[in-house]
């Protein structure tokens, strides 16, 4: 795909080029982003069956926490459009040190979430 003069002028302030990805590539990227969330959400029935009656309380507490975090992210997103992630919002609000801590915390959370998800899958598949 060649970049014409018209396309160069349509770039956003952050340098993003329009119409660079095909629909399939955008769809694949969307699935890749939500994958860490869909696996635990699809195993709720299995978790409730194995854990007992107190499981609903932990899900309600987690849901309340997620809603509160989502409200805060929504406030930042409505005031500051950025192509970055939560790092951008935290570094603007709390400074670059807090942003770096947030970024590395997210990397560690993904690493430490991967193993329980794989173990849950192995348990579900009875390996």
The count of β-strands is: 0
Give the low-pLDDT segments: none
**How many individual helices?**
6
Q: State the order of secondary-structure elements, H for helix, E for strand.
A: HHHHHH
Helix content: over 70%
The major pleated sheet works out as: none
Described by the principal axes of the CA atoms, the overall outline is: globular
Question: Strand portion, in percent?
Answer: under 5%
Let me know the average pLDDT: 75
Terminal Cα separation, in Å? 47 Å
- Going by helix content, strand content and strand pairing, the class is mainly alpha
Rg value: 20 Å
What does this structure look like?
The chain is an all-alpha fold. Among the domains are: 45-79; 84-127. It has six helices and no strands. Helix 5 packs antiparallel against helix 6 (96-125). The mean pLDDT is 75.
Blueprint of the fold:
Blueprint (H helix, E strand, L loop, with lengths): L4 H5 L13 H20 L1 H8 L3 H25 L6 H9 L1 H30 L2
Helix pairs in contact: 5-6
């Amino acid at each position: 795909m060649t970049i014409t003069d018209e396309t160069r002028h349509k770039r956003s302030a952050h340098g993003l080029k329009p119409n660079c990805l095909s629909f399939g590539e955008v769809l694949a990227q969307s699935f890749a982003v939500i994958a860490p969330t869909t696996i635990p959400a699809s195993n709720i029935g299995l978790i409730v069956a194995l854990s007992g009656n107190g499981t609903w309380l932990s899900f309600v507490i987690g849901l309340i926490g997620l809603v509160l975090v989502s409200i805060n992210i929504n406030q930042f997103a409505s005031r500051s459009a950025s192509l970055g992630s939560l790092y951008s919002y935290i570094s603007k609000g709390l400074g670059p040190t807090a942003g770096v801590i947030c970024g590395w915390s997210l990397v560690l959370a993904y690493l430490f979430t991967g193993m329980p998800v794989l173990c849950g899958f192995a348990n579900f598949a009875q390996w």
